[in-house]
Amino acid sequence: MLKPMFSVLMGLVFVFILFDTSLSNVIKDKSFSGVSNGTNVILRWITENEANVSTFEVERRTGSTGEFSFISSINARHNPSQYEFIDYSAFKANGETLYQYRIKIIFNEDNHPEYSEVISVSHFVSGVRKTWGSIKAMFR
Asked: What is the pLDDT of residue 124?
């Protein structure tokens, strides 16, 4: 009686561990970073497990409160990879601006996305760079 119950319990623990690791640790801990180059903001992250990932959606908000807004979608490569995303719209900032970013992880067969940690990037665009950025954007 005890042995079959133990086998069922171990099976449930195995299923829980399998489920837990299949959806967690998509983005490697502490690998999501962002830096301002004075014109754009460059985001980078490393993935560990993309087996069931469809896309990564980059989201941003200005300041440390308020709603995040969708910026771009990046297709998953389905193997551990390094990603880089350049936020070209950041040049529109006036003076020094605090941006916060997160990655929304969309899975193939799951309606419940996961989110990365939130990172903050202090971004300063001079008036000259902002004007030049606007001119370049017209020709993209």
From this structure: 87
